[in-house]
Amino acid sequence: MAVAYKRILLKLSGESLMGDKNYGIDSDVISRYAKDIKQVTALGVQVAIVIGGGNIYRGMNEAETGIERAQGDYMGMLATVINGMALQSGLEKAGVYTRLQSAIKMEQIAEPYIRRRAMRHVEKGRVVIFGAGTGNPYFTTDTAGSLRAIEINADVILKGTRVDGIYTADPEKDPNAKKYETITFNECISKNLKIMDMTAFTLCMENNLPIIVFDMNTPGNLLKVVTGEKVGTLVKG
After folding, report:
1. Which of 5, 52, 185, 235 has its Cβ near the most Cβ atoms within 10 Å?
2. Rounded mean pLDDT of the chain?
3. Please, which pLDDT band fits residue 170 given cuts at 50, 70 and 90?
4. Where does 10-155 have alpha helices with state H?
5. 3-state DSSP call for residue 90?
6. In the CATH hierarchy, which top-level class contains the domain 7-236?
7. At a CB cut-off of 8 Å and minimum separation 6, what does 184 contact?
């Protein structure tokens, strides 16, 4: 089976790991994601993953929590490492070789992020999970995903969400919302479509890195995307 993308960066939200729970990690979701990822690695696709931490900790208003923004962001980074460890465990249970790299040093549980080492891992067919965001406060995991994708020369960012693409309005609220099959970076900006935060989005635009927004919760969708089927919405220059 031919593939459209040889090397991908899969961006997952922390909330996606909750499944039907109110917080935490649903083992069924982990198993399903691991199965989908294994399908694409079996085709020789090189996979790197960035995952958020919102299912465990989401940075909140400093005025409400008393926790300053930078401190809260570091707490969120640690949450992404917990999610990365869970996904790593699920992938290895499915028989997929993985490496977890962290932008914050914690040698007992993860390798430090080293670009050349990460690229060597993906070249050898290992799935690399990037934890702890960029390692800096004030940057989202979307920005971490864009940055890592550019650094490892990924062909595309695959942003797995709950909806099957980008719409003219929120499809969960507006039944008349229409889906875009393809859209340009400039159109997204002019229409104020919030696919990623502006820092992440600008990184992709400046480096001509396409983004595909798709529904990761439908089994088999990831395989369809990497083999070139029209799934989700493609954002390109």
Report:
1. 235
2. 95
3. confident
4. 27-41, 62-65, 69-93, 115-123, 141-151
5. helix
6. alpha beta
7. 235, 236, 237
CA distance 225 to 3: 9
Of 159, 143, 161, give the one whose Cα is nearest residue 218.
161
Name the phi and psi angles at 52, rounded to 5. -80, -175
Strands (E), the chain: 7-12, 46-51, 98-102, 111-112, 127-131, 156-161, 166-167, 179-180, 182-184, 211-215, 233-236
Residue whose structure tokens are 């309005």:
169
pTM listed for this prediction: 0.95
Backbone angles phi, psi at 44, to 5 degrees: 90, 5
Contact call for residues 91 and 63 (beta carbons, < 8 A): no
Task: Produce one character per residue of 68-80: b if its CB has 16 or more CB atoms within 10 Å, e if not.
Answer: eeeebbbbbbbbb
Query: Around 229, how many Cα atoms within 13 Å sit in the side-chain half-sphere?
Result: 10
Residue spans per domain, the chain: 7-236
Residue of 228, 157, 153, 214 whose CA lies nearest to 2: 228
Contact of 12 with 50, CB cutoff 8 Å? yes
What the block records as the tokens of 175 is 């039944």
Each residue's pLDDT tens digit, 84-111: 999 999 999 999 999 999 999 999 999 9
